[in-house]
Amino acid sequence: MPHFAYRARNSSGDLVEGVLESTDSGMVATQLFGLGITPLEIKPTSVPGTPNIFDQLFRDKVTALDLMLFSRQMYTLLKAGVPIMRALTGLQESTSNKTFAAVVRDVRESLDAGRELAPSLARQPKVFTQFYVSMVRVGEMTGRLEEVFLRLFEHLDFEKFMREQVKAATRYPTFVIATMAVAIVIINLFVIPAFAKVYKSFNAPLPWITQMLIGFSNFMVAWWPAMLATLLIAFFGFRFWSRSLAGKPKWDEFKLRIPIAGKIILKATLARFARSFALASRSGVPVIQALSNVAQTVDNDFIARKVEKMREGVERGESVLRTAVASGVFTPVVLQMIAVGEETGAIDDLMQEVADMYQRDVEYELKTLSSQIEPVLVIALGILVLILALAVYLPIWDLGKTMLHK
User: Fold this and answer.
1) What is the mean pLDDT of residues 100-114?
2) Of the residues 164, 187, 266, 269, which has the maximum number of CB atoms within 10 A of its CB?
3) Strand (E) or helix (H) holding 247
4) Which residues lie below 8 Å from residue 146, measured CB to CB, with a gap of 6+?
């Protein structure tokens, strides 16, 4: 993703400069306005401070756990009355992740230069998301910064849990399918050729299923380098496409339609949406800005684009419920909660209830996932074993009957 250098003025009228990563200059301007900063100039720039290849390979990565600990410790220190500069200095010295220590040092130096905390965090877009920065901005404006850090810690903990749950939902079927694929390759490359030599010595006609299996095995033995190369090209091609701006939304949409696992992914995504929207609303973030920030936290580009369209609809004066219905991705339960929340003014509480409900649903679905998938996998494995057994043993059976007749 390209980087853009910007010059802008904050709410105090001070000149601020920095670099943000985004798809285009318009999105950079939107991020800056969301942070309460008025852009003066935005232009493309190279990646700031790009490390060499060895630094990239061996440096520590900033994990979600690092960010969770940072949020929790900031809450504790600020609540205890520790000045923010002293708090950041202590966190920089105490963290064991050198990369994150450098990030904290950059934030502290930015504060030393006269910037506020939110713009200082925005200088590290790969670590602090726009949602995170916007929440900190609200905390600074309302004087409840320590409370915002506590809510961010709880939100990041929830995000980590849901992400692990989604991975768990797809881990078991992926492992079984991969094991079956490896078994098929081994059988075709080593087992069937050995049987084929025996059958050839019989000089007897073979059943059609055996001929097909031997033919496919011969093809794999002769062309396995080309097949392996094609498989690798397809894998890396798919990986590149699924991470591209055009392919990622389509892949994320397809994941929602996967039998059994798709509904779990959808519920986890809706739980993230509801929890993020509730947190933003409860902290006083305007609805338009909240939707823009929430779109970056759902971890699904297809639904994120639907949320962005919701934001555009709200900007035109439509209600949140109307835009949610038009998006076509929300379940009746979510739509009903949004409708009641808009009528009563308690949309944050109702969205929190939606998040808790779907979190419980995801946990239950994962506990019963094996019982839902096992019948499908058993049937597939049974069909595979039946084909192999018929192909291997029918010729031996026919030969035995011929010898008995003689």
Assistant:
1) 85
2) 269
3) helix 247-255
4) 74, 75, 78, 79, 139
Structure tokens at 108: 């502290």
Q: In the beta sheet, which residues pair with residue 42? A: 6
What is the distance between the alpha carbons of residues 84 and 76, in angstroms, rounded to a whole number? 11
Helix (H, G, I), strand (E, B) or coil at 60: coil
* Region of poorest pLDDT, from 17-26, 65-74, 115-124: 17-26
- pLDDT of 83 strictly over 70: yes
Q: Both tokens of residue 379?
A: 């049937």
In angstroms, what CA-CA distances link 315 with 34, 287, 288, 292, 397?
14, 9, 7, 11, 75
Whether the CB-CB separation of 342 and 319 falls below 8 Å is answered with: yes
Per DSSP, 63 falls in state P
Which residue matches tokens 């008995």?
404
The structure tokens 């080593």 sit at: 190
Say which residues have a Cβ less than 8 Å from residue 58's Cβ, sequence separation at least 6.
Answer: none
DSSP string, 95-160: -S-HHHHHHHHHHHHHHHTT--HHHHHHT-TTTS-HHHHHHHHHHHHHT-HHHHHHHHHHHHHHHH
Run of H or E including 4: strand 3-9
Please report, as a single letter, which amino acid is at residue 256: L
Give yes or no for a contact between 207 and 398, defined as CB atoms under 8 angstroms apart. Answer: yes
DSSP state of 187: I
Instruction: Give the largest CA-CA distance in the chain.
Output: 104
Least confident of 104-118, 175-189, 292-306, 368-382: 368-382
How far is residue 333's CA from residue 155's CA, in Å, rounded to a whole number? Answer: 22
- Give burial (CB, 10 Å; 0-12/13-18/19+) of 278: buried
In whole angstroms, how large is the CA radius of gyration of the chain? 28
- For the chain, how many helices (H) and strands (E)? 18, 3
Task: Give the distance from CA 188 to its chain's centroid.
Answer: 36
How many residues appear in the chain? 406
The tokens for 117 are 């905390």
Residue closest to 395 by CA, chosen among 210, 214, 173? 210
Contacts of 381 (CB under 8 A, 6+ apart): 180
* Both tokens assigned to 205: 């006609």
Query: Mapping DSSP to helix (H, G, I), strand (E, B) and coil, where does residue 11 land?
Result: coil
Give the residue from 58, 57, 31 showing the smallest Cα distance to 42: 31
Question: 49 φ, ψ to 5°?
Answer: 60, 40
**Quick check: 268 pLDDT over 60?**
yes
